[in-house]
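tool=predict chain=A
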Amino acid sequence: NKLISGNSFGSSMMFYNPKRYIEGTIHLFEDWNNTAVIHTLSDDKFLVKRVNLNLKRNSFEAKLNDSDSIFSFTFNNIKKIVIDNKIYKNFYYDDDNRVYEMLYDTDDYKFMKGFDVKLISGSANPMVNRPNDKYVRGEEFFLMLNGSINPIKLKKKSIYRYLKMNKLNTSKLDMFIESNSLSLKKINDIIKVLEYYIKM
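tool=predict ok
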């Protein structure tokens, strides 16, 4: 086993809880009981415990021991990160590097889930029933073709538009969806449609 210097992949930092109480979390996972397998560009693999994805920074972080010290991973030299059989990769989109969960990943097409987090301000108004600020996490879906990333809705029209389908392919896919009772609101069904489309 190779000993890999952490400096190749990121840096350590201290973090402090904000003085003002904010509900929710800026991290993807509710807790830090996650183990990641990090795959490097040179095909090395190593295990990192207590890992989470910081949605504000779009970077993976690891808690060092039980202290407040955090190690933040950049994707320099990292090909992918696997947590609980889910694969995460980094791509440049919308003037920023973002981390995506890879739902379907081939050389031609990639179907991905992206994440974000917004801070919703609290209100003193009792009618609003939100006394504290709150982090709200969201997700959106993307298709990647020839290196170009497009946000999509889980709807047939949105997916077909991005695939730039002609009428013949559209009717073939329509028949495939209908005969297999597929729904393009379901991730697994979208993957079946993409697999079929690529073979057409």
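The two ends are 44 Å apart (CA to CA). Residues 91 and 97 are 6 Å apart (CA to CA).
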